[in-house]
Write a structure and sequence with these properties.
By secondary structure, this protein is of the alpha+beta class. It is built from eight helices and seven strands. The chain has helices at about 70-80, 85-90, 145-155, 160, 165-175, 180-200, 205-235, 245-260; strands at about 25-35, 40-45, 60-65, 95-100, 105-115, 120-130, 135-140. The chain has a seven-stranded mixed β-sheet, with helices on both faces.
Protein backbone atom coordinates (compact mmCIF):
# COMPACT_ATOMS: atom_id res chain seq x y z
CA UNK A 1 0.00 0.00 0.00
CA UNK A 2 1.44 3.38 -0.84
CA UNK A 3 1.26 6.78 -2.36
CA UNK A 4 3.93 8.76 -4.12
CA UNK A 5 3.83 11.88 -2.01
CA UNK A 6 3.40 15.15 -3.89
CA UNK A 7 3.64 17.87 -1.29
CA UNK A 8 4.45 21.48 -2.30
CA UNK A 9 7.97 22.59 -1.26
CA UNK A 10 8.38 24.25 2.12
CA UNK A 11 7.80 27.97 1.72
CA UNK A 12 5.77 27.60 -1.49
CA UNK A 13 2.92 30.08 -1.87
CA UNK A 14 -0.64 28.85 -1.24
CA UNK A 15 -2.11 27.29 -4.35
CA UNK A 16 1.20 25.89 -5.62
CA UNK A 17 0.56 22.70 -7.59
CA UNK A 18 2.99 19.86 -7.02
CA UNK A 19 2.02 17.21 -9.55
CA UNK A 20 3.31 13.67 -9.12
CA UNK A 21 5.99 12.59 -11.55
CA UNK A 22 4.49 10.20 -14.06
CA UNK A 23 0.90 11.27 -13.38
CA UNK A 24 -1.15 10.46 -16.51
CA UNK A 25 -2.50 13.32 -18.64
CA UNK A 26 -6.15 14.14 -18.00
CA UNK A 27 -8.91 12.36 -19.85
CA UNK A 28 -12.07 14.41 -19.50
CA UNK A 29 -15.68 13.46 -20.04
CA UNK A 30 -18.87 15.38 -19.36
CA UNK A 31 -22.38 14.15 -18.66
CA UNK A 32 -25.14 16.73 -19.03
CA UNK A 33 -28.42 15.58 -17.53
CA UNK A 34 -31.90 16.55 -16.44
CA UNK A 35 -35.04 14.60 -15.58
CA UNK A 36 -35.75 13.69 -19.22
CA UNK A 37 -32.44 14.19 -21.04
CA UNK A 38 -28.86 12.98 -20.86
CA UNK A 39 -25.86 13.66 -23.05
CA UNK A 40 -22.40 12.13 -22.60
CA UNK A 41 -19.28 13.03 -24.48
CA UNK A 42 -15.50 13.19 -24.25
CA UNK A 43 -14.00 16.65 -23.91
CA UNK A 44 -10.98 17.58 -26.03
CA UNK A 45 -11.34 21.35 -25.87
CA UNK A 46 -11.73 22.82 -22.38
CA UNK A 47 -13.66 25.77 -23.78
CA UNK A 48 -16.58 23.35 -24.18
CA UNK A 49 -16.91 23.54 -20.41
CA UNK A 50 -17.11 27.32 -20.12
CA UNK A 51 -20.91 27.51 -20.28
CA UNK A 52 -21.54 24.78 -17.68
CA UNK A 53 -21.43 26.95 -14.52
CA UNK A 54 -23.99 29.31 -16.09
CA UNK A 55 -26.53 26.90 -17.57
CA UNK A 56 -29.64 25.40 -15.94
CA UNK A 57 -28.90 21.79 -16.91
CA UNK A 58 -26.83 19.76 -14.43
CA UNK A 59 -23.37 18.47 -15.31
CA UNK A 60 -20.88 15.88 -14.13
CA UNK A 61 -17.34 16.49 -15.36
CA UNK A 62 -15.02 13.53 -14.74
CA UNK A 63 -11.28 14.18 -14.96
CA UNK A 64 -9.15 11.03 -14.88
CA UNK A 65 -5.45 11.77 -14.57
CA UNK A 66 -3.87 14.88 -13.04
CA UNK A 67 -0.66 15.12 -15.05
CA UNK A 68 -1.16 18.50 -16.73
CA UNK A 69 -0.99 21.65 -14.60
CA UNK A 70 -2.22 23.95 -17.38
CA UNK A 71 -5.38 21.88 -17.88
CA UNK A 72 -6.08 21.73 -14.15
CA UNK A 73 -5.60 25.47 -13.75
CA UNK A 74 -7.92 26.19 -16.69
CA UNK A 75 -10.59 23.95 -15.14
CA UNK A 76 -10.09 25.88 -11.91
CA UNK A 77 -10.65 29.16 -13.77
CA UNK A 78 -13.78 27.92 -15.56
CA UNK A 79 -15.42 26.75 -12.32
CA UNK A 80 -13.96 29.51 -10.11
CA UNK A 81 -12.31 26.97 -7.82
CA UNK A 82 -10.46 28.28 -4.79
CA UNK A 83 -6.70 27.99 -5.32
CA UNK A 84 -6.39 25.70 -2.31
CA UNK A 85 -8.85 23.26 -3.88
CA UNK A 86 -6.52 22.61 -6.81
CA UNK A 87 -3.60 22.27 -4.44
CA UNK A 88 -5.49 19.65 -2.42
CA UNK A 89 -6.46 17.75 -5.57
CA UNK A 90 -2.86 17.19 -6.68
CA UNK A 91 -1.20 16.99 -3.25
CA UNK A 92 -1.16 13.26 -2.58
CA UNK A 93 -1.86 11.80 -0.12
CA UNK A 94 -4.46 14.02 1.46
CA UNK A 95 -6.35 12.85 4.50
CA UNK A 96 -9.99 12.24 3.48
CA UNK A 97 -11.84 15.41 4.32
CA UNK A 98 -14.73 17.76 3.61
CA UNK A 99 -14.09 21.46 3.01
CA UNK A 100 -16.62 24.24 2.39
CA UNK A 101 -15.85 27.20 0.12
CA UNK A 102 -17.99 30.12 -1.01
CA UNK A 103 -19.47 28.52 -4.12
CA UNK A 104 -18.40 24.88 -3.95
CA UNK A 105 -17.78 21.99 -1.57
CA UNK A 106 -14.67 19.77 -1.73
CA UNK A 107 -14.72 16.15 -0.65
CA UNK A 108 -11.53 14.10 -0.73
CA UNK A 109 -11.84 10.34 -0.55
CA UNK A 110 -9.80 7.28 -1.40
CA UNK A 111 -10.43 4.57 -3.96
CA UNK A 112 -9.19 1.18 -2.76
CA UNK A 113 -8.44 -1.85 -4.90
CA UNK A 114 -6.81 -5.19 -4.10
CA UNK A 115 -4.66 -6.22 -7.09
CA UNK A 116 -3.35 -9.22 -5.11
CA UNK A 117 -4.08 -10.62 -1.67
CA UNK A 118 -0.83 -9.06 -0.48
CA UNK A 119 -1.24 -5.58 -1.97
CA UNK A 120 -3.70 -2.77 -1.31
CA UNK A 121 -3.72 -0.07 -3.98
CA UNK A 122 -4.87 3.37 -2.83
CA UNK A 123 -5.87 6.22 -5.12
CA UNK A 124 -7.03 9.68 -4.14
CA UNK A 125 -10.25 11.04 -5.61
CA UNK A 126 -11.50 14.58 -5.18
CA UNK A 127 -15.13 15.57 -5.70
CA UNK A 128 -16.19 19.20 -6.07
CA UNK A 129 -19.90 20.00 -5.72
CA UNK A 130 -21.18 23.27 -7.18
CA UNK A 131 -24.61 24.76 -7.64
CA UNK A 132 -25.30 22.84 -10.85
CA UNK A 133 -22.27 20.60 -11.34
CA UNK A 134 -20.04 17.92 -9.89
CA UNK A 135 -16.36 17.59 -10.75
CA UNK A 136 -14.48 14.38 -10.01
CA UNK A 137 -10.68 14.22 -10.17
CA UNK A 138 -9.12 10.75 -10.17
CA UNK A 139 -5.39 10.16 -10.03
CA UNK A 140 -5.56 7.37 -12.60
CA UNK A 141 -7.77 6.09 -15.38
CA UNK A 142 -10.41 3.73 -14.06
CA UNK A 143 -13.96 2.43 -14.19
CA UNK A 144 -14.98 2.45 -10.54
CA UNK A 145 -17.64 5.11 -11.18
CA UNK A 146 -19.31 3.21 -14.03
CA UNK A 147 -22.22 2.15 -11.75
CA UNK A 148 -23.03 5.86 -11.31
CA UNK A 149 -23.06 6.34 -15.07
CA UNK A 150 -25.38 3.36 -15.42
CA UNK A 151 -27.82 4.87 -12.92
CA UNK A 152 -27.83 8.16 -14.82
CA UNK A 153 -28.49 6.41 -18.13
CA UNK A 154 -31.43 4.37 -16.86
CA UNK A 155 -33.81 7.27 -17.09
CA UNK A 156 -35.91 9.39 -14.76
CA UNK A 157 -35.18 8.71 -11.13
CA UNK A 158 -33.87 10.45 -8.06
CA UNK A 159 -30.32 10.71 -9.36
CA UNK A 160 -31.58 12.58 -12.44
CA UNK A 161 -34.20 14.65 -10.59
CA UNK A 162 -32.21 15.67 -7.51
CA UNK A 163 -29.39 18.19 -7.37
CA UNK A 164 -25.65 17.68 -7.89
CA UNK A 165 -25.26 17.02 -4.18
CA UNK A 166 -27.24 13.81 -4.61
CA UNK A 167 -24.98 12.79 -7.50
CA UNK A 168 -21.99 13.43 -5.21
CA UNK A 169 -23.63 11.14 -2.65
CA UNK A 170 -23.99 8.43 -5.31
CA UNK A 171 -20.32 8.80 -6.25
CA UNK A 172 -19.11 8.54 -2.66
CA UNK A 173 -21.44 5.63 -1.93
CA UNK A 174 -20.10 3.74 -4.96
CA UNK A 175 -16.51 4.23 -3.78
CA UNK A 176 -17.35 3.00 -0.27
CA UNK A 177 -19.37 0.02 -1.56
CA UNK A 178 -16.17 -1.14 -3.29
CA UNK A 179 -14.54 -1.51 0.14
CA UNK A 180 -16.79 -4.44 1.12
CA UNK A 181 -15.37 -7.04 -1.33
CA UNK A 182 -11.87 -6.06 -0.21
CA UNK A 183 -12.75 -6.62 3.44
CA UNK A 184 -14.40 -9.95 2.62
CA UNK A 185 -11.39 -11.13 0.59
CA UNK A 186 -8.93 -10.13 3.31
CA UNK A 187 -11.13 -11.67 6.01
CA UNK A 188 -11.33 -14.98 4.12
CA UNK A 189 -7.57 -14.97 3.55
CA UNK A 190 -6.93 -14.24 7.21
CA UNK A 191 -9.22 -17.06 8.34
CA UNK A 192 -7.57 -19.51 5.93
CA UNK A 193 -4.07 -18.52 7.02
CA UNK A 194 -4.94 -18.79 10.71
CA UNK A 195 -6.20 -22.34 10.08
CA UNK A 196 -2.96 -23.21 8.28
CA UNK A 197 -0.89 -21.79 11.14
CA UNK A 198 -2.74 -24.06 13.57
CA UNK A 199 -2.35 -27.13 11.34
CA UNK A 200 1.02 -26.67 9.61
CA UNK A 201 2.86 -23.56 10.81
CA UNK A 202 5.63 -22.28 8.58
CA UNK A 203 7.66 -19.09 8.26
CA UNK A 204 6.00 -18.33 4.90
CA UNK A 205 2.48 -18.68 6.32
CA UNK A 206 3.33 -16.52 9.31
CA UNK A 207 4.77 -13.86 7.02
CA UNK A 208 1.62 -13.81 4.87
CA UNK A 209 -0.51 -13.66 8.01
CA UNK A 210 1.47 -10.64 9.18
CA UNK A 211 1.08 -9.01 5.76
CA UNK A 212 -2.72 -9.45 5.72
CA UNK A 213 -3.03 -8.06 9.24
CA UNK A 214 -0.89 -5.08 8.25
CA UNK A 215 -3.12 -4.40 5.23
CA UNK A 216 -6.22 -4.56 7.44
CA UNK A 217 -4.64 -2.11 9.88
CA UNK A 218 -3.75 0.28 7.06
CA UNK A 219 -7.27 -0.09 5.70
CA UNK A 220 -8.80 0.96 9.02
CA UNK A 221 -6.45 3.94 9.19
CA UNK A 222 -7.68 4.97 5.74
CA UNK A 223 -11.37 4.52 6.56
CA UNK A 224 -11.56 6.37 9.88
CA UNK A 225 -10.87 9.83 8.39
CA UNK A 226 -13.34 8.99 5.61
CA UNK A 227 -15.95 8.48 8.29
CA UNK A 228 -15.07 11.85 9.84
CA UNK A 229 -15.38 13.57 6.44
CA UNK A 230 -18.91 12.24 5.96
CA UNK A 231 -19.82 13.35 9.48
CA UNK A 232 -18.72 16.87 8.51
CA UNK A 233 -21.07 16.81 5.51
CA UNK A 234 -23.98 16.06 7.85
CA UNK A 235 -23.49 19.23 9.86
CA UNK A 236 -25.80 22.16 9.34
CA UNK A 237 -24.66 25.15 7.28
CA UNK A 238 -23.31 23.32 4.22
CA UNK A 239 -24.64 25.54 1.39
CA UNK A 240 -24.07 22.99 -1.38
CA UNK A 241 -25.59 20.06 0.52
CA UNK A 242 -29.39 20.13 0.82
CA UNK A 243 -31.32 18.80 3.80
CA UNK A 244 -32.71 16.06 1.53
CA UNK A 245 -29.26 14.90 0.46
CA UNK A 246 -27.99 14.92 4.03
CA UNK A 247 -30.48 12.13 4.70
CA UNK A 248 -28.76 10.02 2.05
CA UNK A 249 -25.28 10.97 3.22
CA UNK A 250 -26.37 9.64 6.63
CA UNK A 251 -26.81 6.25 4.96
CA UNK A 252 -23.30 6.63 3.57
CA UNK A 253 -22.06 7.30 7.09
CA UNK A 254 -23.72 4.06 8.20
CA UNK A 255 -21.75 2.26 5.48
CA UNK A 256 -18.53 3.88 6.75
CA UNK A 257 -19.34 2.72 10.27
CA UNK A 258 -19.93 -0.84 9.05
CA UNK A 259 -16.59 -1.09 7.27
CA UNK A 260 -14.64 0.32 10.22
CA UNK A 261 -16.09 -2.01 12.84
Amino acid sequence: MGFTKTIPPIGASPGTLSIAEGAPPPRISVTLYSEHTIEERAVYDLEELVSIPHQPIKAWVDIQGTGDEDILRRIGEIFSLHRLVLEDIVSVPQRPKSEVYDNHHLLITRILTLPTNDTLDVEQMSTVVGANYVLTFQEKYGSILNPVRTRLRKGPGLIRNAGPDYLAHGILDTVIDAYYPILETLGDSLEHLEDRVMERPSAKTLQRLTTIRHILLQLRRTLWPQREAVQHILREGQPMISAQSRVYFRDTLDHCVQVTE
